[in-house]
Amino acid sequence: MLWAVALVVGCGGDGPSAPNDAAVVDARVIERVDAQIPRDAGVDAAEAIDASSESRIDALVELLASETDVARVDSALRDVALRDGWPVREDGRWLFATRWDGSPPRVSLVGDVNAWSTSAHVATRAASGAHWFVVIDESTFVASAIGAKYKWWGEPDVYRAPFESLAYGYDDFGEHGWVRPPSDAPHLERFVAFDSAFLDAPRAVRAWLPAGFVARSEGASRVRTLLLHDGNNVFDPGALFGGWQVDATLAREGWSDVVAIAIDNAPDRMSAYTHVTDVIGGSTTGGRAADYLRMIEDEVLPFVRARYGIVASGRSLMIAGSSLGGLVSIWIASQRPELAGCVAGLSSTLGWGSIGRAGGADTLIARWSGRPAVAIYLDSGGSAGSGCVDSDGDGIDDDGDGRDNYCETRQMREVLRDAGYVDGVHLHYVHAPGAAHDEAAWRARFPAVLDACDASGWAAP
């Protein structure tokens, strides 16, 4: 299995009191083989650090100061990112390091620990030419590392979020890293460019951890887990239409016993989230949901279970998504009903398989049978418009001009009722008249989604 960390560099800003992020400057993917690690220069560098009698920070600094091979440095920094997380603390010292291709000539570490001073902790360019690092004595911190935000700064006035940091968050000035996350408030963590043996494109896996959560503790084994698709849009308030902001909803509504795991989409989204092929814009696409499910079951869930000590299965797991993410959520319920206690599909593309393809026999609506032991939430905005009519005779109601998958969602509700699902017990259906097909609408409905699954058996393990 391959894991990877991508360092995506952004820039922009309004000064030390208002650090901001704007355009993407560069991106690199750094791969890690998690099991059978092949012998290469990068791994040699990481093993040399492990075997060194020096402190870990000293060994890393020595590598950064002398190694000219970018790949070897990337490998060592990647190893730290996945094992310990950045930044590294040891004996009262902190090492911060980043890769910044095309960086300004002068770079500094700025944040709460130095009152956002651009001169207090000037970074050193590594021998590779692509990396920067700085070692800071904790005694110089003007604020506690716990709950301290930080970024990288470059002259003349460029602020860049530390995309290598394990813990991160958002404020009025965009994304920032945490030196150490706050213990009395929720925070986000990320594992960027998670690679899979089942799908070609890497994608990030993100986690929202409630206040006071301690990984691999007894308490961690008692939390519920929420698994979300389209993770790019789940937490980031700068995402399309303001994103779902699930983290804000969970914190505001008091879901303190929930850990949320979000899997980013990738260029293969239309394929990974669909169970069969369809014809879109004259091209046949789709049909790799089985591979996506294998990635979830065999790679993502085992990874987060080991990392955080959560159960994330059976009644303690809820799976949710929107549009194609809603489709794949409902499809997973049909294939692995024992995997989760509740699944939710918001504005789900339930007509997939009949959009441009003749016949509707392969749609989830037509294929559904029985009543699997998993609760289901369905919703849509839009309306019937000029009417829900099977205009092409394929057995699937066409959405017409009402949009937001209203007609197909209503038809799926009837299929589930006929299969034995009972409204308010195993089945929840919500119609938000006229609501658009976008993140703002799904954000508005998400509290009701959580309440519905909570009422239908989504519970602590």
How would you concisely characterize the structure shown here?
By secondary structure, the protein is of the alpha+beta class.
List the helices and strands and how they pair.
Layout: E1 2-10, E2 24-33, H1 41-51, H2 56-66, H3 70-83, E3 88-90, E4 93-99, E5 107-111, E6 124-125, E7 131-137, E8 149-154, E9 158-160, E10 167-171, E11 174-178, E12 187-194, E13 203-209, E14 224-228, H4 246-252, E15 258-263, H5 269-272, E16 277-280, E17 283-286, H6 289-308, E18 314-322, H7 324-335, E19 340-346, H8 364-367, E20 375-380, H9 406-418, E21 427-431, H10 439-455
Parallel strand pairs: 14-15, 14-18, 18-19, 19-20, 20-21
Antiparallel strand pairs: 1-2, 3-4, 4-7, 5-8, 6-7, 8-9, 8-11, 10-11, 10-12, 12-13, 13-15, 16-17
- Measure the end-to-end span: 28 Å
CATH-assigned homologous superfamily of the largest domain: Alpha/Beta hydrolase fold, catalytic domain
Q: What count of helical segments does DSSP give?
A: 10
CATH architectural arrangement of the largest domain: 3-Layer(aba) Sandwich
Percentage of β-strand residues = 25-35%
Helix content: 10-25%
Q: What can be said about the biggest beta sheet? A: 13 strands, mixed
Task: Identify the overall geometry.
Answer: elongated
Count every beta strand, where a strand is a DSSP E run of 2 or more residues: 21
Number of domains: 2
Mean pLDDT: 89
Structural class: alpha+beta
User: What is the CATH level 1 assignment of the largest domain?
Assistant: Alpha Beta
List segments where confidence is low: pLDDT < 50 over at least 5 consecutive residues. Answer: 1-43
- CATH topology (fold) name of the largest domain: Rossmann fold
Rg result: 24 Å
